[in-house]
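job 3f2a | input accepted
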Amino acid sequence: MTVDLWHQLFPSIAVFIWLSVAVLIAGTVRSFTGFGGGLVLAPLFSLFMAPADMVVVVLLLNFVISLQTLPQTWSTTNWKMVWSVSIPALVGVPLGVWLIEWLDPILMRRFIGVIVAGLAAIMLIGWQYNGARGKFQDWFVGLTSGALTAMAGVGGPPLVLYFLSDKTITPVVLRSFFMMFFAFIQLSTMAAFLYQDLINTKQVLYSLSFMPVYFLSAVIGSYLFRRALNRAGLIKRLSLWFLLIVGSVTIVI
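job 3f2a | predicted structure (253 res):
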């Protein structure tokens, strides 16, 4: 990578370091919980990248980590859960692709901030979804998640609020579900972006620049999941407070 190209991607070394730290935190959170990578990355990346670039980089990073953790999660995946929301999510992807080309970048960044901060606040106060569960709810959650994934790289909130409140699902199965669903929907979204010619060399170079850090974060997150389940509540709350701060800052900038 030439010096000129490096400066096109990163205005300064400080920017690269800050974004690398965000990538390290995002990957650790995602590997530990099965979700949250895009929630950390999207608000911060949106400050330095165009919306389409930000979404593609977030998708590429998360998809590679999904592949890395696939052998660990395959045997504990509830495939009925995965397909119940994956099919409607596919319907939502084209809607998100259309919106990312139509929405103003500043409006998009603040929308992402609202989504991230809102999810963190709701989970911190302990609100849970106790309503009906069935095909209609699955379709709504899946459709919304697919659209948000393609539009902003943050398709997790509807799924998180819907499935985390289901006490019949164990943490291991829930983590595997999140990993598998997002691997599937990320691949589908990237296919849609390729079809629309929205993936370019700059986005790939961004992703390659952060890939070593993200690989390291996946190892850290998986280690924490195996070793620190007794402290999962503390780690979860710290992660939510971090998301709340990041989302709030993104709204006002």
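job 3f2a | Residues 201-227 form the longest helix (27 residues).
job 3f2a | closed
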